[in-house]
Specification:
By secondary structure, the protein is of the alpha+beta class. It has helices at about 30-35, 115-125, 125-195, and strands at about 1-5, 10-15, 20-30, 50-60, 65-70, 75-80, 85-95, 100-110. The radius of gyration is 30 Å and the shape is elongated.
Length: about 200
């Protein structure tokens, strides 16, 4: 996992995944654990002044796909990418902080453990059935990733071809400019010598 210290500004992570990819963000904020009151500990809710706002932004459309304020000291958040473009996960304190706020972050592809636990409880599934569902989900993610990488390779190849064409034509353009410059220089020198009766 990665830990960051939040004071007053947002910290953002770049995430590049195929469109419609499920992501699970596991977070832990040690300082919030101490602030949970004894009455609210069962609900796992902390003081709003120490809450953290998470935003998931699609950089292509510039829209926030997900935005949530979390006050629990530990938990997980489910996200889904909306397109093949790069996304940003931004985290910032919900309100101005006097001291830095440490947060541990781990981002994993796929549904979290809680999702599969709820799925098993709702459908009365045993462990083997849950594992089969997990394997199917992982296979779908692998195929989706393979398609994404293939499209990315095609885009990179086209870009490389454009750069190669530009690299070929740029020296030709330079030579043409040099020839034109030389012709004008010769013409100017010739007219200068003729005007001075030196030619």
């Amino acid at each position: 996992g990665t830990f960051i210290l939040l004071v007053d500004k947002a910290e953002c992570f770049q995430i590049e995944e195929p469109g419609d990819t499920q992501l699970t963000v596991y977070y832990e904020i040690p300082s919030l654990e101490k602030l949970v009151s004894s009455e609210e500990q069962g609900a796992n809710v902390a003081s709003p002044r120490k809450a953290v706002k998470m935003s998931f932004i699609d950089r292509r459309s510039k829209k926030a796909v997900f935005s949530k304020t979390v006050a629990a000291h530990k938990g997980e958040v489910q996200l889904t990418t909306m397109s093949d473009s790069t996304h940003q996960l931004c985290i910032k304190p919900a309100q101005k902080q006097v001291s830095p706020l440490r947060i541990d972050i781990a981002i994993e592809r796929g549904q979290g453990d809680r999702y599969y636990d709820e799925l098993a409880a709702e459908n009365n599934m045993d462990k083997l059935q849950v594992e089969v569902v997990k394997l199917n989900d992982e296979l779908a993610e692998i195929l989706n990733e393979a398609d994404f990488m293939k499209d990315k390779e095609v885009r990179f190849h086209r870009k490389a071809e454009r750069i190669n064409k530009a690299a070929i034509w740029w020296p030709v353009l330079q030579i043409i400019i040099l020839i034109i410059t030389a012709v004008f220089q010769v013409a100017n020198l010739k007219s200068f010598f003729q005007s001075k009766n030196l030619y």
